[in-house]
Backbone:
């Protein structure tokens, strides 16, 4: 492959679209061609940005406006060289080659955008999963710290339907844990929501797992000045304030 041909491969190389033999040859060329190396860096950055781009529906009038303005744009005349028919033919061939490369690069860029978007989406899913796992681990560690804290205090009581609940509070950790046993699952489309009782004002303390009738739940947020906790049945997703009579209200141990 000639040096002139190698200069035309920057776009395909940036998009990983070269056969293995041409890729190796082009990489050897990159060591000696600063211009190609710079162009590869710029095209790679552009492809990466395309992969992060968000799709947006164009306005309805855009197509009609483009078609209307096309008729008013004068077509560029074919290039004419000064070296006779042979040179003009070479110039025309070069122009056609450049146009083909431009179209190929555009197609590759579109493919890179789609694949890049999928890769970004997968990366975000993985990142969200890691963050959720980290948050779950941190909550589990804090729950264990509350239950094992030297100043942990507990109080137990009967809940509706014969279930039993125990609340454990640690002032040093400023958190509380609710342990339940024998609770019936909430009605369909409903969830048990926990509340801090801030001297008569109920503050959400999180939701219980609808499928778990026994277990320990770390109440969301600090205990602060709360004097107790309550449990209500709320629509799935929870409520900003209680919408039903409490199933139980338990004072915090002193």
Residues:
């Amino acid at each position: 492959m000639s040096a002139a041909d190698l200069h035309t491969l920057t776009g395909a190389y940036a998009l990983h679209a070269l056969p293995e033999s041409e890729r190796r040859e082009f990489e050897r060329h990159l060591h000696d061609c600063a211009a190609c190396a710079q162009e590869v860096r710029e095209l790679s950055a552009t492809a990466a940005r395309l992969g992060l781009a968000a799709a947006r529906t164009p306005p309805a009038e855009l197509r009609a406006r483009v078609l209307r303005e096309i008729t008013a744009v004068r077509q560029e005349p074919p290039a004419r060289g000064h070296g006779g028919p042979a040179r003009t033919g070479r110039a025309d061939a070069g122009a056609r080659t450049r146009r083909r490369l431009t179209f190929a690069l555009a197609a590759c860029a579109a493919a890179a955008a789609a694949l890049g978007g999928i890769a970004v989406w997968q990366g975000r899913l993985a990142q969200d999963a890691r963050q959720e796992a980290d948050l779950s681990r941190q909550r589990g560690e804090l729950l264990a710290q509350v239950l094992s804290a030297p100043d942990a205090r507990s109080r137990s009581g009967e809940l509706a339907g014969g279930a039993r609940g125990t609340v454990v509070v640690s002032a040093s950790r400023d958190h509380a844990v609710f342990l339940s046993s024998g609770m019936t699952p909430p009605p369909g489309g409903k969830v048990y929501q926990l509340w801090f009782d801030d001297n008569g004002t109920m503050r959400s303390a999180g939701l219980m797992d609808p499928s778990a009738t026994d277990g320990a739940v770390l109440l969301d947020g600090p205990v602060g000045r709360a004097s107790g906790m309550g449990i209500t049945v709320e629509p799935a997703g929870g409520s900003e304030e209680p919408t039903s009579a409490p199933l139980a209200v338990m004072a915090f141990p002193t």
Notes: The first strand starts at residue 153 and ends at 158. The two ends are 85 Å apart (CA to CA). The CA atoms of residues 191 and 234 lie 5 Å apart.
